[in-house]
Each structure stands twice: as C-alpha cells, then as structure tokens.
Fold:
Amino acid sequence: SQQGEEDPQALSIQEGENATMNCSYKTSINNLQWYRQNSGRGLVHLILIRSNEREKHSGRLRVTLDTSKKSSSLLITASRAADTASYFCATGENRDDKIIFGKGTRLHILP
Amino acid sequence: KAGVTQTPRYLIKTRGQQVTLSCSPISGHRSVSWYQQTPGQGLQFLFEYFSETQRNKGNFPGRFSGRQFSNSRSEMNVSTLELGDSALYLCASSPNGQGLTGELFFGEGSRLTVL
Structure:
C-alpha cells in the first residue's frame, strides 16, 4: 500500500526555473526521504528529513516537512537538463519500520 | 566501495514458470529490501531481510519469497509466474535495517517480463 502521494504526477519546466514537488502521507513517521530515479534505473537517495526537523538543504535541494499537515515539499532550484527524472518521497513508518514509497513525480526539464 | 549488484538485469519468462533474482548488497550492509515497481502501482514493498531473518514483509502472495545468506547476499523467488508479475524488481541495502538508518542504497534492478 502507498503511504506517500506525490503531487503533481508530472511537471515540465524550462531549464533554469525552480521545480517544486509535494508529498502527502497518512500515518505517523520517523523520517521522510526523497529519491530520484532516472528512466528504468535504480533509485538514488537525495535527502532525509527527520520528523523533528522542519527544513533541510542539500546543494540545490530544499526539503520542508510539516508533520501537522502530514506533508513535505522538495524544491529544486535553478533546474538543469540532468534533473529530468522521477522523484519519489518515502516515509519511514513508526508503526513497523518499513519504508514506503509514493508513486512519484515525473519531472521534465525543457532546454 | 562497490554498489548494490543485481542479477540478472533482464529476463523473460512464460506464465507458470518460476524465477530467482539475486542481490549482493554493499559490503558491510546487513539489511536487504526488495521492491516491485510497475507503472500502475509504483514501488511496492516486498520484504526486508536482516542478518538472514525476514524482518518485514509487504502484502504479496506466498508465491513471492526470499532469503538471505550469511554473507548478506539475498535472493528472491517468484513461483508460478503470472502476467502481472512483469515488473522492475529493485533491491536495496542499508547498514542496519530500514527502521534504524533510513537511507536505502538501490541496485539497478532486474526487469522481468512474463509472456
């Protein structure tokens, strides 16, 4: 079963613009992570934010977490062609220590 | 350090057959998790093994099974294949288990096509 739901399902923006993706989840979590997947490849970990953190940065990535709204957002600034990929949020559940993934946002950076 | 290695990368089977997929985790990682990825359902958690014991499992039928060896390498098996089992099967390793460290390191996946 899915825990996280990403929004939008697909996003196309011009190179250089910022991209924002959102994730909503349902149950209590230990942490929330974002992963990137290039077409048909394995997933690559981008960033992890713990339930007691509100914001985290890594290079051009900024993640926020609002546990009261059970939501997170991933912002990619100054997008590049190489950012074209699918992005998944994944939640570490308190209940049974599983990491559950959403269905992802497909991001396409236009030249 | 070598990454997570999955074999085979591609395979084609027919309905009713069985398949075994292999995953070698990053050296020193004791946890191996398996996920099934399909366009319609996204990434679905299959199971996690830690020190040769299944720690967690998802909601898949008993046709899906796995095991982990003393060197942390893991295999998953799907018996009596169905068309709907066509998917990318992803293996991920972590040092101490999903619940403890969070970050997963993924292999490139094994793409299974069932005809």
The interface with chain A takes residues 4, 33, 35, 41-43, 45, 48, 55-56, 58-59, 88, 90, 92, 97-100, 102-109, 111 of chain B (CB under 8 Å).
